[in-house]
Amino acid sequence: xxxxxxxxxxxxxxxxxxxxxxxxxxxxxxxxxxxxxxxxxxxxxxxxxxxxxxxxxxxxxxxxxxxxxxxxxxxxxxxxxxxxxxxxxxxxxxxxxxxxxxxxxxxxxxxxxxxxxxxxxxxxxx
Length: 126
Hints:
Helices cover 83% and strands 0% of the residues. The chain is an all-alpha fold. It has one domain: Helix Hairpins (Orthogonal Bundle), CATH 1.10.287.
């Protein structure tokens, strides 16, 4: 296999992201969730450390969902029909996304809920 230059590598990765967000239902859902999360972070003026944590959570969920999608495509290519081992592979890959998503929701709650409570209690600023 011919080695690609750095520009081709980035181009391929960007095309993969475009495919993912355009064609994968879960990618679209997670993109909307990420946009809402970033918007909430801006609105609630979260700290630099909170931004780092949120961005790592968003990246983890996106990355795992992209890997899950790739694993599903490979499984479908290799074994188009049902196979119990393919089901296990797909289920475990989906579980990895679920674990990251649950952890990310918990992190979001830890960061945002106290700020929202302060705001709702009429303290005016966060």
